[in-house]
Amino acid sequence: MTNGRMLPHVSATILEEQVGLSLSEVSRACAVHAEMIVELVNEGVLAPDGREPHRWRFTGVHVRRATVALRLQRDLGLNLAGAALALELLDEVEALRAQLRAMGASRE
Amino acid sequence: MEFKDYYKIMGVARDATQDEIKRAYRQLARKYHPDVSKSPDAEARFKELGEAYAVLKDLEKRAAYDQLGSNWKAGQDFRPPPGSNGGFEFSGSGAGMDERDFSDFFESIFGRSEGHAQRSRATHHARGQDHHARVQIDLEDAYTGATRAITLQAPEMDEQGRVHMKKHTLNVTIPRGIRAGQHIRLAGQGMPGVGQGSAGDLYLEVEFRPHPRYRVEQRDVYFDLRIAPWEAALGASVEVPTPGAAVEVKIPAGAAAGRKLRLKGRGIPGSTPGDFYVVLQIALPPADTEAARTFYNGMAEQFKSFDPRSTPGA
């Protein structure tokens, strides 16, 4: 029953560094219908390369962003605009934190 | 198993109205949501909160929970009342969260939910759910890549269709060049799919263990280098230990404390590698002997016109 000493070895990719993902690949990665991803693009949460949906190219960072937006929507009862606002504010907080850390580092 | 005080977790009175419970949940959920909060126990708090809310928002479940009485204290050893036999019966679950994450205490009262047919996120292709976990690595691992054995718990169904938690260990390759906050995706290592559906993926969020020597900002790595006053004044060549290798660094003459020397491309590797910054700190020899004090006094005499409070460069 046990795996013994030979553990299954799994190779890994870095999510954020994936590039050239299509709309359907992103929806699959986020486990939602494509329409949901289209809505996220329309709300300005995701900004893929390419003009029409079938030419859109996303990166792993988009997948990550979409996942967080969907989780915030689901867990906090937000609508799309609310989730988009929360994401923007979170980005801002993160940028401020980074600045604060950098200042702390140079002051020491 | 430990008794869980759901009212206390939600910070509401035992006679709170359903509206009050909902309000408390919304407020705490915003506070402890793992995507929002940076506190290390946010995930655990959020899970606990979800469990408490799943019980208290549901009138049937809340009534069953209240039947246990109000004398229980959180953390007290709890044994389910005799005759309850693995749980009460409930119509519909309706919890927004994944009940498979709930505690043993929850299961002892309400039983284990099976099937999850009500889950709206079960999509058309019935792909297995993705799993998320966190993994701590050392900064050095990002320079070289590494292999880590990672143990995960996941629910699994046996031949009788019963679900139980099973531990499994995977050897995971940590790719070289990974940065804190990034996610390692392990395709097919999430929850098994339903029917013909493919398995979900496993996502590991990477965190660097705090390092005694280095600070990391995105791709860049910072290192405080302590140098002697004469090294700062006259310039020097000093060996600096970067995570990759030791490097000779030239300190320019007249270097000020806090000055950053950039070693291009010696940060976290990748297609655009980060930089390594040496931050100069000037360490003073202690004036703890007569000779040392005489020497400092001599310096004061020598640099009479030097005013450290004047604006530099003015």
Q: Can you tell me about this structure?
A:
The complex is a heterodimer of chains A (108) and B (314). Chain A is mainly alpha-helical and 108 residues long. Chain A has one domain: Multidrug-efflux Transporter Regulator, Chain: A, Domain 2. Helices cover 57% and strands 4% of the residues of chain A. The model of chain A has no long low-confidence stretch (mean pLDDT 84). Chain B is an alpha+beta fold and 314 residues long. Chain B has 3 domains: 6-110, Orthogonal Bundle (Helix Hairpins); 131-208, Urease metallochaperone UreE, N-terminal domain (HSP40/DNAj peptide-binding domain, Sandwich); 214-302, Sandwich (HSP40/DNAj peptide-binding domain). Helices cover 24% and strands 25% of the residues of chain B. Chain B contains 8 helices and 11 strands. In chain B, the strands form 4 sheets. A 4-stranded mixed sheet of chain B has the order 6-7-11-10. In chain B, strands 1-5-4 form a 3-stranded mixed sheet. In chain B, helix 2 packs antiparallel against helix 3. The model of chain B is unreliable at 83-97 and 114-124 (pLDDT under 50). The chains are: A mainly alpha (108), B alpha+beta (314). At the A-B interface, strand 1, strand 2, helix 3 and helix 4 of A face helix 2, strand 3 and strand 4 of B.
Please specify the SSE layout and strand pairing.
The complex is a heterodimer of chains A (108) and B (314).
Chain A: E1 9-10, E2 13-14, H1 23-30, H2 34-42, H3 60-76, H4 80-107
Helix pairs in contact in A: 1-2, 3-4
Chain B: H1 6-10, H2 18-32, H3 42-56, H4 59-67, H5 104-110, E1 131-137, H6 139-144, E2 146-157, E3 163-174, E4 183-186, E5 202-208, E6 214-217, E7 220-227, H7 229-234, E8 236-241, E9 246-251, E10 260-263, E11 276-282, H8 290-302
Parallel strand pairs in B: 1-5, 7-11
Antiparallel strand pairs in B: 2-3, 4-5, 6-7, 8-9, 10-11
Helix pairs in contact in B: 2-3
